[in-house]
Amino acid sequence: MLGITDLKVGTFFELDSVPHQVLAAEHSKMGRGGAVLRTKVRNLLSGATYDRTFQGSDQFPDADVSRRKGQFLYADEASATFMESETFEQYPLNRDRLGNALHYLKEGLEVDLILYNGSVLGVELPAKVNLVITYTEPGFKGDTQSTVTKPATLETGYEVQVPLFIKQGETIRVSTQTGQYVERVN
Prior knowledge:
- This protein folds into three domains: 52 residues, Roll (SH3 type barrels), CATH 2.30.30.30; 60 residues, CATH 2.40.50.140; 58 residues, CATH 2.40.50.140.
- The chain is built from one helix and 14 strands, in the order βββββββαβββββββ.
């Protein structure tokens, strides 16, 4: 059983017999009252996210969720297919359940598969991914007193703002949490 002090970002737990994941958590204590935990949680079966407040005495069963290393294979109109690295078993996952992760998925990308009762509920991406720029306008020298950026289209079709010195065909590192340019990869 998990108490509210065990619920940290990324923790899996069961609420009303449904697996959930903590996306954000903030502990607070009000005067003479007990401690409360304000959280943002994701229902792993439906994909819905919502805010929930828990009291200090609340207890939760640990969810039977496991993480396994996997690899992105390909995507079609309806789903994306992942392969578990140890057993080579393939799991299709509905595109709706992936959300923004689709912006960063390229063939062969290593991911963590989130499994519950033998079925994949979602994937966790690495914090940063390397992607090739397929199109961007050439940078112009001149007004560079402030940080100037330009749009660039990545190999996955996602558009990100990059500095002027970045050229088409270069590889850049992009944060999967913020969706922003991090650095150029040599």
